[in-house]
Amino acid sequence: MSPIFQNILAAIYMILSFGSGNRFGRKLHHHPSSRLPVKGVYWPSWSETTFPPSAIDTTLFTHVYYAFLVPNSVTFRFDVDNSTAHQLRRFTSALRSKAKPAKTLFSVGGAGADANIFARMASSTSTRKIFIDSSIHVARTFGFDGIDLDWQMPQNPKEMDDLGLLLADWRAAVRKEAFPAEPQLLLTAATYFSADFFLAEQYRAYPVAAINENLDWINAMCYDYHGSWDTTATGAHTALFDPKSNISTSYGLRQWIKAGIMESKLAVGLALYGKTWTLDPSSYGIGAPAVDVGPGSGTLTFNEIQRYNTKNNATVVYDNATVSVYSAAGTSWIGYDDPTSISEKVKYAKELNLRGYYFWAAGGDYKWMISKQAKQSWDVGYLH
Q1: How far apart are CA 96 and CA 67, in angstroms?
Q2: What are the angstrom distances between the C-alpha of 101 and each of 33, 98, 269?
Q3: Which CATH class, in words, describes the domain spanning 36-271+338-379?
Q4: Domain residue spans in the chain?
Q5: Is 253 within 8 Å of 354 (Cβ atoms)?
Q6: Which of 35, 84, 212, 241 is 20 to 30 A from 282, comparing alpha carbons?
C-alpha cells in the first residue's frame, strides 16, 4: 500500500471517528451487542422450588436476570455462601445448556434491599472499587454474561451524582478486566419509570449522560403505579396512558427520551402480575372506590389471575383509555395486562425505537401466553 493511500485512509478514519459523536457532543464507547434487541425476564431466586431456571423457555427471551444478590452492608463485597453458590451455578448452567441459550446477568439489590447500602458504597472511590471488583469476581466465577444494578432508589441529587460516578468506574473496570481475551461483561440497571422523580418531595433526576456512556441499557420499571399502599381506589398499575395524570408508561418513556437517553439504551418494563383491591361491586371501573387489598394480599400473577377469573366467573374488561385489563367478581377487583394489552405496549416501545422490553417476573405467565405475544409483537405483529 502506498504512503499516499495510507494517508487517505487515515484521514477518512479520523473524519469518521470525529463524526461518530452523540447528541451530547462527544464520542460514546459502543459496547458489544449494543444493537441486539432485548427480550428479558427476571427470575426470582426464591421461586426455585416452584419454578426452576430450567423451566424458562429461552426461545422467548434473549436475557435472563438472576434476582437478587445484595452486597455486605459493611464491606460492600458479595458474601456468597455455599447454598447461593450452588444456586448461581445451577442458574447459569441451566440457561447456557438450552438449545437456544440466553445471556445471563445477576441483579444487585431489588425492592427488598436497603437503599442506604448503595448510597454509602457509591459515595467514595475506594468503596466503589471494592464493590465493583467483587461484582466482577462473582460474574466470572459463576459464568454470568453481565451485571444489573437495581438500586431502589437514589434519594437525592448527590446520590444521583454518585450513581453516575459508580457507572463510570464500573465500565472502566469491566473494560480493563476484559482486555484482551474476554468479552466485556454487560452492564445494565433497573430504574424508575421516568428519568426524574417529578412527584417526590425532593426532586432528583438520573445521570443520563453517564447512563448513555457506561451502560448497555436500562430497564425502566413501568409498573406498580398503583397498589396496596393506596386502598382507597382501584388503579391500572401498568397503564400505558393515564388521562388524569402523568403516572403512565407513555409519559415515563417520553421523559427518558426528552432527558437525552439514547433509545437503544432503554427497555420498557412489563408485568406478569396484577394488583388487587376489595370494593363495592356496584362500581368496579378503574378508579372505583376501594376499601382494602383484594385476593393474594394485593398481588396475583397472571397465571393466578387466569385461574381466579375462571373459578369465579369474573367479568373481564379491556380498558382502551389506559391500555390495560381488569376483572371483577363480587367485591374483588384485579388490574393487570393480558396478551392484547401487552402487544400494544410492545408495539408502542418499538415505535419509539427502544432497545426492547423485559418482564417481572419468570413463573408468572400462563402457558407463556403473554411472553409469546410480546415476542411476536416485537418480531412481526399481532398473533391471532
Answers
A1: 17
A2: 15, 5, 22
A3: alpha beta
A4: 36-271+338-379
A5: yes
A6: 241
